[in-house]
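Ticket closed. Logging final result for Fe/B12 periplasmic-binding domain-containing protein.
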Amino acid sequence: MVGVPSSLDPDFFPEFGDVTGVGDMPWNPDIEIILAQDPEVVILPSCAGPYGYTADEETKLLEAAGVTVLRFCFNQPETFSKELEKNGYVFGKKEEAEEFIDWHEDIVNPIEEETSEFSDEDRPKVYCEWLPYQSSVADDDIIAAAGGKDIYEGLNGEVSSEDVLYKDPEIIIRPVWQGETGYGLDPGNTVRLEGVRMAIMGRLSTVAAVEEGEVYLISSQLWTYLPSSGCRPFVALCYLAKWFHPEVFSDLEPQAIHQEYLTRFQGLDIDLDEQGVFVYPPLKGS
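Final structure:
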């Protein structure tokens, strides 16, 4: 590895601390720095990023310089297994890729099979915002897979406070950014998250989700489509299923699954009982 995004999480990728940074975001890397590393292969995103970023122009520039460019998303649940399978082939890690895919699908598939049988009446109404009153169509699939119904399914952009109040969601989900959450934080370091949650509950005080205390924050490092999540949306799916249907998924243990992933596949010496903040409020017993 001769170059990585400059903003990689040092707690999650400690092995890349001395590797050259080639740009703050994967959609707009510094081509000059990349070429100076004389790479044989460059991996860039195949899907669009925030604010309309793509890596199309960077791909053209690199290929014009004779560099092989491979493009993958890695954070889209519907394409992840196929993408990892291809990477296992490219990098001579087919067995390792297959082991992870099997483990990953043994977690995800039973949840999706269970929730696929739910009627609309069985699905709680869910409001998800990534900023106040900002909805994303990319939230729809993971909410549906976990057994919920996105009240703004198919909508991308700003919604009104009046309409959220009218739709009266039963559960509210808010992804929060790295820094407010992450592997480097003490589990008791939740003051900022408490503030975000209280602000949501204050401005939406009359909806069912607030009245019942069903307002949940989750790390952007676990949330589908966000650039730092990678394959980890499967952990978010576990948390959502547990929040949406605690009786159906009473045996599901999201933190234990996250822990196994870190230890077994990421090779990290991180004990999630002692280090890291990823959801708020924490699940009882986790």
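Strands lie at 41-45, 68-72, 125-128, 134-135, 149-150, 157-158, 171-176, 215-219, 279-280. No further action required.
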